[in-house]
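The instructor's notes for this session suggest beginning with a concrete chain rather than abstract definitions. Hand out the sequence below and ask the class to guess, before any prediction is shown, which regions might be ordered.
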Amino acid sequence: LERQPPNTLLAGWSMGGIMALEAAAARPENIAGLIMLSSTARFCSDAGYPCGVEPHNLRTMRAGLERAPARILGRFFDQVCAPLKPAPEAREAFVSDALGLGLPALANGLDYLAAADLRPRLASIKIPVLLVHGEADAVIPCGASAYLAKNLPSATLVTKAGVGHNAPFAALSFVSEAIHAFAKRVLG
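After discussion, reveal the predicted structure:
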C-alpha cells in the first residue's frame, strides 16, 4: 500500500474483502476508499455476532479438506454459486484450480478465516466504504454486510435479491454500476 498513489481504491471479494478491511485499518492514509464484495469483518459467528458461519462448519470443512479435498471444494463451489446451480465444467475447473494452490495454502486460508476478527477496528476506519452483497449468499450471510454498514462510520450498503456469494459474476452489471458510482463519488 505504501507504493500506491494516495487516491487508491482498495477492493476485495469474500476473504479478500476481510484482508482489504485489515489493510484499511492498518494504513487508512493510503486508501481513498474501500470496496467490499460479499465480505465480512468476522467469518465465524459467536455469542455477540450472529452474522457469521458457525465455527463448527469451518472446522468440519478444514478436517474434510484433508480427507476428501475435491468433494469439500466442490461443495464449497456449489455454495458460492447458490442459488444457481453451477455448470459441471465450471465446478471441475474450480476444484482443479483450488487444488493447484496446494492443501497447505487452502488450510492456511481457512485458519485465517477462523482467526480474523476486525470488529474492534471498525470505528477507526473513517474512509468511504462500499459494501455489495447478494441477499441469497450461502457463504457469508448478507447480515454481515449490514453489520459492517452499521459499524463503519462512512459505509454504503447495496444488496441484490436472488444473488449469492458470486455476486461479482452473477450480477456483473449491478456490481460494476455500484462500483462506478462509488468511485465517481469518492474520486470525483
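Then share the key points. The first strand starts at residue 8 and ends at 13. The chain has a mean pLDDT of 95.
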